[in-house]
Amino acid sequence: MEYKSLYAGLLGVIALLLWSFEYWKVFKSPELVLPQKAKNKNGNVLRVCIYIVGFISWILISVALTGPRKPLKFAPQNIEVNDIYVVVDVSRSMLAEDLKPNRLEVAKEKLREFAKLRPTDRIGVIIFSEKVFTLLPLTTDPGLIDQILAQIKVGFLGSGTNIGDALALAVGRGQASKTKNKVVVLLTDGVNNVGNMTPLKAAELAAEYEMKVYTIGLGSKKDAKLPVGKGLFGTQYQNIPGGSIDLKTLKEISDLTGGKSYMASSEESLKEILEDIQKLEKTKIKSSGQVVYDELFFPYLMWGILLFLASNISRRFVLREVI
Fold it and tell me: For the chain, which residues make up each domain, given as ranges?
């Protein structure tokens, strides 16, 4: 936590001192002196308690005047914003357990980490298997991006791997954007086998609209177990051959568009790949920026005012002072 101005809090301290002098009648000569026996001990205790309430109220008001706040994130101004389309394969093979707990869960976790490193960029999410679907249009809302990436599931887009149409959808959404730097991160574990457009034709369109495509093949080179249902003795699996990713086509896609092609065979390697893409597509800041703050003064000010009112009301109706 930090403060806008500690000196402003001195105003509250000065007000506390003046209020204390007035409360205890420091500079006022008594008009009536009662005998010692006539003094009410309970009244003295009440007077001290009411003073403590008033004292705390002025301390809280003093803290509010300093402007306490907590920095949330750096929000640079006049930046060169990137449009990033995350295109994720959700075919059934993404449930293969050669990566733990499975390929899709590892991909989701690392993509969420990647998105959090780019709070100023616009990010959209496209998923595909047989059909393609825009799960999230371009947005700069980091909370929404994280939520959508976490909710990606397998099963409702049919069977098959439609890389070409998925990439073409990203290009179609990106061509209308005026952003200079447009990037596609395409993650798949298979070979294009359905769809209207070939991956290379879609890559040519991406190159035409100056969209770089980073391709990531996900999966180990060894055979993987794919859960296919529940049986009498628990979950049943089928083996799918390792090394079934079309790395040649993925590399051609990235070469055509000025991107880069990767192979992720483990959780750690996928993390390193996304970190590499993060460095290659780092946002350039053109001018100084500002920090977004969470202002914290209001609770201090509210409780300070409430306690001050309670103190003065008690003086009027409990101590029966004329204020």
Answer: 2-71+292-317, 79-280
pLDDT score, position 244? 82
Nearest Cα to Cα of residue 241 among 266, 261, 208, 219 = 219
**Quick one: pLDDT at residue 54?**
92
Rounded Cα distance between 281 and 92, Å, is 31
The neighbouring-strand residues paired with 123 are 84, 139
Asked if 192 contacts 199 with a C-beta cutoff of 8 angstroms, the reply is yes
Q: What percent of the chain has pLDDT over 90?
A: 63
Q: Where are the alpha helices (DSSP H) in the chain?
A: 8-23, 41-65, 103-116, 142-150, 163-174, 199-208, 247-257, 267-280, 297-317
Q: What share of the chain is helix, strand, coil (3-state, %, to 5)?
A: 45, 25, 35
> Out of 17-26, 96-105, 212-221, 302-311, which region has the weakest mean confidence (pLDDT)?
17-26
At the topology level, CATH places domain 79-280 in: Rossmann fold (3.40.50)
Residue-level pLDDT at 80: 67
Is the pLDDT at 242 greater than 80, yes or no? Answer: no
153 to 103, 265, 279: CA distances (angstroms) = 12, 21, 28
152-189 burial, b for 16+ CB within 10 Å, e for fewer? Answer: bebeebeebbbbbbbbbbbbebbeeeeeebbbbbbbbb
- Residue type at position 156: F
Give the pairing of strands 132-139 and 181-188.
unpaired
Q: How confident is the model at residue 214 (pLDDT cuts 50, 70, 90)?
A: very high
Q: Quick one: average pLDDT of 185-206?
A: 96
